[in-house]
Amino acid sequence: MSTRRTSSAKADSLQLERLPLAELRQGRRGKHYDLVGKIAGEIEALPDGEALRIALDGMDVSLANLRSAVTRAMTSRGVKIGTFSDGESLFVWRKTAGTARYERKRRKK
């Protein structure tokens, strides 16, 4: 019976608050949030036909994880991007009608 009193005491001390969903901050804040936010801002500012070169030397994140995080962030912002890597750098650009000729053509199965 003492357990029930303890649970009841915990429930009584629980603080609840109602708020509109518009005030609720929803979004992913992963390990590389600040880095990806900076890269995303640069990508959005890129003129058509230019790519952003991101040097991988000294990064504390792998190429695969960086590419994945940048792609996820840009998709959530509604921006289509293309990526390429030469092993030393990651290149990222906004996909537009003008950049289609520079992108790899995928074979249809």
What does this structure look like?
The chain has 109 residues and is an alpha+beta fold. The chain has a domain at 30-96: Hypothetical Protein Ta0175, Chain: A, domain 2. The chain contains 3 helices and 3 strands, in the order H-H-E-H-E-E. The protein has helices at 2-13, 33-45, 63-76; strands at 52-55, 81-85, 89-94. It has a 3-stranded antiparallel sheet with strand order 1-3-2, with helices on one face. A hairpin with a 3-residue loop joins strand 2 and strand 3 (89-94). The longest helix is centred in the middle third of the chain and has 14 residues, at 63-76.
Keyword list:
elongated; 3 strands; 109 residues; three-stranded antiparallel sheet; alpha+beta; Hypothetical Protein Ta0175, Chain: A, domain 2; 36% helix; single chain
CATH topology of the domain at 30-96: Hypothetical Protein Ta0175, Chain: A, domain 2
Overall spatial form: elongated
What is the CATH domain class of the domain at 30-96? Alpha Beta
Following the backbone from N to C, one meets helices and strands in this order, namely HHEHEE
Radius of gyration: 22 Å
| Oligomeric nature of the chains | single chain
Count of individual beta strands: 3
Q: Which CATH architecture of the domain at 30-96 is right?
A: Alpha-Beta Complex
Q: What integer is the average pLDDT?
A: 85
Distance between the termini: 67 Å
User: Main β-sheet, in a few words?
Assistant: 3 strands, antiparallel
Return the structural class. Answer: alpha+beta
Helix content: 25-40%
Strand content: 5-15%
Provide the low-confidence segments as ranges. Answer: none
Output the strand order for the largest sheet. Answer: 1-3-2
Question: Given the structure, what is the number of helices?
Answer: 3
